[in-house]
Amino acid sequence: MTPTRLLPLLAATLALAAPAPGARGQDRPLALKGATIETVGEAGRIETGVIVLRDGKIERVGPIDEVEIPEDARVEDASGMTIMPGVVEPAYPFQVPGESSSSGTRTIIIGGRVITLGGSSPTRSPIFTRVADSFDPFRADFDALLRSGLTHLDLVPPDYGQTAVVRITPDDPDGMLVERDGRLYVSVSNSTASLDVVRKGLEATKPDAPGGGRGRPDGPTGRGRSGGDGASGRPGGPPSPGSSSADSSRDLWKAVAEGKAPLLADAGNAAAILYLLDAIEDFEDVEVALIASGSDVYRTLDRLSGRGGVTLLLRPTIDTMPDNRDRINLPRIAHEAGLDLAFSQGGNRFGLLSAQDTPLFDVGYLIATGLPREVALEALTARPADLIGQGDALGRLEEGKAASLLVFDGDPFDPYSRLRTVIIAGRTVYETD
User: Fold this and answer.
1) Architecture of domain 3-86+418-431 in CATH?
2) For the chain, where do the domains classified as CATH 2.30.40.10 start and end?
3) What pLDDT is stored for residue 24 in this prediction?
4) Hey, which residues does 88 pair with through a beta bridge?
5) What's the N-to-C CA distance of the chain in angstroms?
6) In this structure, are residues 29 and 50 in contact, taking their beta carbons and an 8 Å threshold?
7) pTM, whole model, 2 decimals?
8) 67 vs 50, 111, 200, 217, 425, CA distance in Å?
């Protein structure tokens, strides 16, 4: 049986083998045999391997001559295919229902004309938002992203707040929200208002701060459903000192200051990167997952590489050097400078959807021009999973982790290879002939 002819049967078998959402009990395992397996774990690349899935998890994985396939397993020949972990997106913009990405308007005067622009004034204090309070799985529009190989998204708020992790399971909306209490996220520019969020948030964690390190950072206000987790009950107004929104922001800043969780920071320009590094300079334990353009990172590379604890979230693309049109492989340059990196494509939904015939072509081009293959694989899977606090379950094909994986009919980075099947928690959520 050829791999291409196997695919519809494989998808049907997976759907039958996996338990229904919320179901309990032990189903027959499924063994995919003969595929090349990119584990992105300690086992590395397995040229001819077996992976066994049961009840939404990986039960066994390894070389074909070392893995004992359970007697009750359905066995499918996956020869010629490549299996890799699902792509994890660490910073996917979330639109709060009923609001623009930056609430409010601002007025400017050009040549004597008064023009009103959408978006808030750069001097406005960012609003603290818990994504989970506004997330409605029945209104989520993520299905199309499956064709790009994305299986999990870390949803980030418009300006400032707490992220939430979802998996793209359109047939199981109740199971989409994986983690309500995600990472702390802030969008920074070279405006005082946005930088003060970082400065005051960290300062409030110091032992000598008002309240003995338990003071509430100035600036954030609560937003969410009245009575919901993290909601103040007064959307748009400041939370009371005892509100869950104030507690959320305080606890999140404390975790960042102590190095227990990274700060997701979206820097609008090169100056913002430098100001952000200045703001965290006195807090040696702070780790930052920095979202920035390739050209802005290139401008500030010396400063970034001189501070530990920075992970770059970069688009997987060839950039141009600042002030000229010379093309550069910024992920390779950053890696060679000793910086950790993960790929983030969430801010370019159009690009994701327009390249679905070859979803990993851009990453393949980066590899062809010098980025190590294993670094690229980690940047798509394991590294972002670790950053968003899901490394124990996602990002690697290892025993006990979630059975969330992609099946290609060849090398995932070959432009002639196609994504054939997407599996999340052991269930087929996308497949094509």
Assistant:
1) Roll (2.30)
2) 3-86+418-431
3) 38
4) 152
5) 14
6) no
7) 0.85
8) 7, 73, 54, 53, 21
